[in-house]
TrEMBL record, chain A:
Keyword hit for Metal-binding: no
Native organism: Sinorhizobium garamanticum
Name the record gives this protein: Monovalent cation/H+ antiporter subunit D
Localization of this protein: Cell membrane; Membrane
InterPro entries assigned: CPA3_Na-H_Antiporter_D, ND/Mrp_TM
Presence of the UniProt keyword Lyase in the record: no
UniProtKB/TrEMBL annotation, chain B:
Lineage start: Bacteria, Pseudomonadati, Pseudomonadota, Alphaproteobacteria, Hyphomicrobiales
UniProt signal peptide: none
PANTHER family noted in UniProt: ANTIPORTER SUBUNIT MNHC2-RELATED
Main location: membrane
Keywords assigned by UniProt, alphabetized: Antiport, Cell membrane, Hydrogen ion transport, Ion transport, Membrane, Transmembrane, Transmembrane helix, Transport
NCBIfam families: 2a6301s03, PRK09094.1
Designated name of the protein: Na+/H+ antiporter subunit C
Matches recorded under Gene3D superfamilies: 1.10.287.3510
Recorded topology in the membrane: Multi-pass membrane protein
Species of provenance: Sinorhizobium garamanticum
Coiled coil: none
Length: 538, 115
């Protein structure tokens, strides 16, 4: 990697941060201008993320590649940003979702309140930082940055429902942040390091009583991320908050739960991986049990939901639960499938959140209420050119119905789309144990997971069918909703990404497999981070 | 000193968690503040307690680790204070908005039958 390519890593954080800050003093009447700048910034981040993904895929294993030392201080002392296949993948996914949500918001939702695009940029900066950082305390800082922006975005558009959901969301996340700090400082107090790679090498050398303290710290830290990921007893805030958020915000929130999952993956394999001595695999059983209960709770919630917003919220829980349990079960073959599932389910749920509002618009008085809310709390001077952007396309219901069908197939994991490929890859990894008898090699937990994974798909299918029939077939007084082209395009693009993922499942799975192999080889990873040379050849 | 500090952290945490579970938004925000004070003290304590020792430079005992306190927790505490302060301010705004919308300071936006 040449010198200027090295700096691309920090660009994914600095650019959204700078653009977000620069947009704050711009007058709210220039909303389209703000939107264009915000979109441009995200587009650049997306392109950079693609380049980084290519770099990570081609040269990710060479020592020193993708390690960015801030202030040119070497790893255990200075702050490092670490690029590997997993973080590059998450960067791409974030930027892709953000692009779709931003385009969608420019039809009307960004007029519902102030500073929408600034908050959006800050959210992206926080997310990118959380994916790239190599030490625990900066993880906290980026995590808080992301959360602060998400509070603002959740409240965007205001109204009693959003404020109520926001109040719960903020209170829970603030309490979780306190737990985060307790965990981090406990780990620092015992090991004297905050760098994750350094931590991985130090864990094996601890005395038993110190090891217990670190494990207690890690458990407290884990609770903070599990709140974010929405593991069962910690997830009651999630469906109301996601259902109350405006559609573009809910769409990008689909990746916020994945931040929790991502960090659990990181800590689980890097810090408590094979190199951790007696601490290896710490907390696995809890992840498995919690993940499975989350799938069960989410599936019941999906079946019980009347409104589509809540259905999507519970689908987020099913997706988190599937991932957490897959991580906890810890079979080497499953991890690649789980990563594939992460990408596929995030794209699907995001598209679904965007689609819901378009469908709901034609269904009942909800659209009118929203319009009233917009007039009461939005900006008074609507831009003229916004009116010209939208064209009422004929056959709207056909397009919406088709998108809805694709969402249903993807959510429930039916062939031939990526939802099926992902679940199939997870199950294949689970069953794939060469040389042993399947009946003895698989534990009760493994079988329960198989059953839950398939049943959760069935639950999603039933719920989506019921709502689909009510909306598209049997709607009595439903009017055809007015849908702007720039509103339906992001939905189509996100679903097209899922279809592309299904068509290119081979190369995608190879990438995921390489990512999984990296994760399962933590000592090599920490060696790579700690031995990275300083710039200037020292 | 260790005893006083740990007792202080314990009392702050216990009061914070108790208030966090109360039904009024004002109690919740005070609970969160107390909890963040407890956390800040806890981070401070994790750097080991030393009396009259500077964190970074000490001309008298330069080069001797024994004459310093750990500077990292102090930097962490500073960041944590700033962030938790900002978050409390933001939460306060949301709390006032909620009060304005619902006319009550109950966390669910409506009164229960008996509190």
């Amino acid at each position: 990697m040449t010198d200027w390519l090295q700096h691309l890593l920090i660009l994914t954080i600095l650019l959204p941060l700078a653009v977000g800050a620069a947009l704050i003093p711009v007058d709210e009447r220039n909303r389209m201008l703000k939107g264009v700048f915000g979109f441009g910034s995200t587009l650049i981040v997306f392109v950079v993320a693609m380049i980084l993904m290519r770099i990570a895929a081609n040269a990710g294993n060479q020592p020193g590649t993708g390690i960015y030392q801030l202030g040119n201080w070497p790893a255990p002392f200075g702050i490092v940003l670490v690029l590997d296949r997993l973080s590059a993948l998450m960067l791409c996914l974030t930027a892709g979702l953000a692009l779709a949500a931003q385009v969608y918001s420019m039809a009307r939702w960004h007029t519902a309140g102030h500073h929408f695009h600034s908050l959006f940029q800050l959210l992206i900066a926080g997310l990118n930082g959380a994916f790239l950082t190599g030490d625990l305390f900066n993880l906290f800082v980026f995590f808080e940055m992301m959360l602060a922006a998400s509070y603002g975005l959740l409240l965007h558009g205001s109204g009693p429902m959003r404020v109520k959901a926001g109040l719960h969301y903020i209170a829970i996340n603030l309490a979780a942040s306190s737990l985060f700090l307790i965990g981090v400082s406990l780990i620092y107090g015992v090991t004297g390091t905050l760098n994750m790679a350094d931590l991985a090498t130090k864990l094996a050398t601890l005395t038993p009583d110190n090891r217990q303290l670190v494990e207690a710290g890690a458990a407290i830290l884990g609770i903070a991320f599990l709140v974010k990921a929405g593991m069962w007893p910690l997830s009651f805030w999630l469906p109301p908050a996601y259902a109350a958020a405006t559609p573009p915000v809910a769409a990008v929130f689909a990746i916020l739960t994945k931040v929790g999952v991502y960090i659990i993956v990181r800590l689980h394999f890097l810090v408590f991986g094979a190199a951790a001595g007696a601490s290896a695999g710490f907390g696995q059983d809890w992840l498995v049990a919690g993940g499975m209960l989350t799938i069960a709770f989410g599936a019941i919630g999906v079946l019980a939901s009347q409104a589509m917003g809540r259905l999507a919220g519970y689908s987020v829980l099913v997706s988190s639960g599937t991932l957490l349990a897959a991580i906890g079960l810890g079979h080497a073959g499953m991890l690649a499938g789980a990563l594939f599932y992460l990408v596929s389910s995030t794209l699907t749920i995001s598209a679904f959140f965007l689609l819901i509002e378009l469908v709901d618009r034609g269904r009942d008085a909800g659209a009118d209420v929203l319009a009233v809310t917009m007039e009461a709390y939005g900006d008074f001077d609507e831009d003229e050119e916004e009116e010209e952007v939208g064209v009422a396309i004929p056959g709207t219901m056909a397009v919406l119905g088709l998108c809805f069908c694709l969402c249903a197939v993807l959510l429930s994991g039916l062939p031939p789309l990526s939802g099926f490929v992902a679940k199939f890859a997870i199950l294949r990894g689970l069953f794939d144990m060469p040389g042993t008898d399947l009946a003895t090699a698989m534990s009760a937990a493994d079988w329960t997971y198989v059953v839950l994974l398939i049943l959760s798909g069935l639950a999603a299918m039933i719920a989506m069918n019921r709502i689909g029939i009510r909306t598209f077939w049997a709607s009595i007084e439903g009017t055809v909703p007015r849908v702007f082209v720039i509103e339906i395009t992001p939905v189509v693009v996100l679903l097209a990404a899922c279809i592309f993922l299904s068509l290119q499942a081979g190369p995608a799975m190879r990438y995921m497999q390489a990512t999984a192999d990296d994760l399962l080889n933590p000592l090599f990873q920490s060696e790579r981070i700690l031995s990275a040379p300083r710039a200037g050849g020292q | 000193m260790e005893l006083i500090l740990s007792a202080g952290i314990g009392a702050l945490t216990a009061s914070g968690v108790y208030l966090l579970l109360r039904p009024r938004t004002y109690q919740v925000i005070i609970g969160l503040s107390l909890l963040s004070y407890a956390v800040n003290l806890f981070i401070f304590g994790m750097g080991r307690l030393r009396v009259n020792a500077p964190p970074v430079l000490n001309p008298a005992g330069a080069g001797e680790l024994a004459s310093y306190t750990d500077p990292v927790p102090q930097a962490l505490v500073l960041t944590a204070i700033v962030i938790s302060f900002a978050m409390t301010a933001l939460f306060l705004v949301v709390l006032l908005a909620s009060r304005g919308f619902t006319g009550t300071d109950h966390v669910d936006g409506r009164e229960q039958r008996h509190d």
